[in-house]
Predict the structure.
Amino acid sequence: EPPFSLLRNETGKVGGYIGAIWNIMEKKLNFSTVFEEESVFGILVNGSWNGMIEKLRSRCVDIAISEFTMTRDRMEVVDFSLPPTII
């Protein structure tokens, strides 16, 4: 199975499950994405965030495409898309 998300530098597209959804959205909604790689999801260290969470919090980027765990601390500083509910 493919990973959830994977930046493919040679194509400039995102791969994996989440990437496939993002690529469909780009095409259907007619927009393009400029990616900025980050190797750390983001944790709170001594009261300061790092990684992708900090880039989102400080508005250096508009969105992060990855498989984040929605923790209480992260939910206080960034918005998450909500998973669909199962009936």
Notes: Residues 70 and 83 are 11 Å apart (CA to CA). The mean pLDDT is 85. Helices lie at 16-29, 51-57, 72-75.
